[in-house]
Design goal:
Shape: globular
Largest sheet: 6 strands, mixed
Distance between the termini: 6 Å
Order of helices and strands: EEEEHHEEHEEEEHHEEHE
Radius of gyration: 20 Å
Number of strands: 13
Number of domains: 2
Length: about 300
Amino acid sequence: MVAQFSTFFMGGFFAAVVVSALQLCPLSLTAQQPGPPVPSRPDVRAKDKYDGFIGGIREEMPLFPGCEEHPDYATKKRCADSLMIAFVYDNLRYPYAAWQDSLQGMAVVSFAVEKDGSVADAKIVRDPGLGTGAEALRIVNLMMDQGIRWTPGRQAGNPVRVQFNLPVRFKMADHEFPPPPPPPKADEVIRAEDLERIPLFPGCEDLGTYEEQKECADQKMVEFIYYNTHYPPLARENEVEGTAVISFVIEKDGRIGEIKIMENPGAGTGEEALRVFKLFNEKGLKFNPLGSSGRAVRVLVHFPVNFSLN
């Protein structure tokens, strides 16, 4: 068997699509209200009508939790789509910088629903800028932080990994917007998704733009993890696969601390991922710590590492 590792770092994701790409209907956020009423859903009984998804799989899509008591799949799907839209609207905030510059547009976040119903591999695939893409990504990552598990999709009666594209439309309205949040306290930890510019893995500082540096830094970090990760013998022997999630804090000096296993598939996979992240400090690797404010801040990162055997 050959071990493969797929990894994700904030705005960068490197993994093969396992099932066909799917897409949810766009969500629109206006500045005047925290969340609009749940829109009506199309008639799922008419197969020639748009049912909220685009993709090759048509047996059973993953469903947002909360509708398990309904007797049939079609009713569960209508209910689950409404609950997911409500979750997004209840938690989404129009970024102050985007509102201040009257920026509107559609952000698109790609993510996967694993065979166990967990959300993983979230990344921004379309970003209008000024924090809109980061805000849409924050909402998807919130599902992982809250331990929300979907009912997994099924193909030929078996659970499958399904990838979604979630479009979120940001639209301005003529209403007063709340003032920006106060600057963080000295020791406050800020989530990476809440920053317009995140700390970057070292080695790309000589490139011109931040976007160029970030693309290069994401690639270097993935390569470091890939070449230093060893598939645990116990996991290989027992054919254990899954996603280990490591959380860590990038300190103001660029070192990482508070390294923890958040999700562990078992058989040594979580411990192996933890060992690799501890190598950062052992090898003297330091992130470029500047955040979106132009000053160093403490940044919390969740990093999934997927262990997969072929």
